[in-house]
Specification:
The chain is mainly β. Helices cover 2% and strands 39% of the residues. Strands 1, 3, 4, 6, 9, 10, 11 and 13 form an eight-stranded antiparallel sheet that branches. Strands 14, 16, 17, 19, 22, 23, 24 and 26 form an eight-stranded antiparallel sheet that branches. Residues 1-30 have low confidence and may be disordered. 42% of the residues are buried. The chain has two domains: 19-228, Exo-inulinase, domain 1 (Jelly Rolls, Sandwich); 246-435, Exo-inulinase, domain 1 (Jelly Rolls, Sandwich).
Length: 438
Amino acid sequence: MKLTKGSFCWFAMASGWSLAAAHAEAPKAATCDETGFVSIFDGKTGEGWSIYHDKGQPIKPDAWVIEDGAILNKCMGYWYRYEAEQLENFVLRMQFKVSEGANSGIVLKSKAEGVPWQTGFEVQILDDHGKEPNKNSTGSIYDVLTPMYNESKPVGEWNDIEITCDGKLVKVVVNGLKVIDVDFSEFTKPVGKFKRFNLAYNDLPARGYLALQDHGRPVWFRNIRVKKLDKPSPPPVRNTSEEGFVPLLNATHSEGWAVAHDNGKTPFTLKEGVLRCNGTWGPWYRYEASELSDIVLRMDVRTTQEGRSTSGNSGIVLRASKDGDPPYSGFEVQVLAEHDKQPHKHCMGAIYDMVVPMLDATKPIGEWNEVEITIDGLLCKVILNGRKIIDTDFSKLTTKRGKFGFPYAELPRSGYLCLQDHGDVVEFRNIRVKKLNR
């Protein structure tokens, strides 16, 4: 069935899952709450939608078609835009599936004229199942923010995606796992490709159009539904107070700490409040005065290019047991001498081999980085130099991932703090902790 120019009128249906009655292969009912959602695509017509070309080319009615209850691009370079109204504060849900080599995107808050992804922001869609996340992966904020996980399914399988725009707060959930959680008000300067267009995400319009991209390979969309939010939530305010924090290390004494896996050398030394990992390779420095459970941990970390690999490789492990290798019983926040690089699962601030930071907030090698790690039950947040880079829920990780022999949903609820000697010189100071009373 071919599409025609949209009628530009708003229509609403009682349920976002109305396709179930219209199409035999419609998906099963969603497991999440659908209260307040309305369908903006009826699975039969293009009512409310229009075909658009960002360079003013004549409209081709067959550039997008509806097949089996889904919207499908025909690889002609046109956009499919919802023009019944502009969206402001909302939760958008839909399903998509990709063909081999497909590249597409869901653009939000774009303007009526111009290239949508250059006037709004794009959540990337890609044929990239099983690949490491980067700033162009499925679920990324295109060329700006890296998804914490790549949850895309193989070619031909339907993916569920949810995008929340709550004022300047944006969240992206792919197949049930949150991959982006960011405050656009922090982006006061253009980044990535958007420097060319002088577009800072803090300056995005409050409302704009939803557009689907045709980037040359077939992509299918269905079950597109929206829930409007009454008003934007106030921006989060980070608690920088030091009230309740207790130092774990003083200027000259390391009482409560001990070397684990001692190699007979001097792996750590303390001088004038700075704990230096000397790069002897193998040992850990463990805080043994007590196990730690739900806490906020703060410290300063400085990497160098001295040592075995010159990469400033170390780690901060929480909830480790006294037996075995700490990262394999607890979880490790990676330390690495990198700056201004694409985030990856072993970079500074990553949950080692597991969760990728959404952005690079590291300072140049040789400067002190402020690290804050919150672990509250199975909720984990990492803030690096004042920027939130990880905000995830380990309870969602119910299968084994990365190098680890257990699902993070089964992470111990308490354990030891350990600092790693990975053969490189790294320094720590101002190590302090605040216990969360629950």
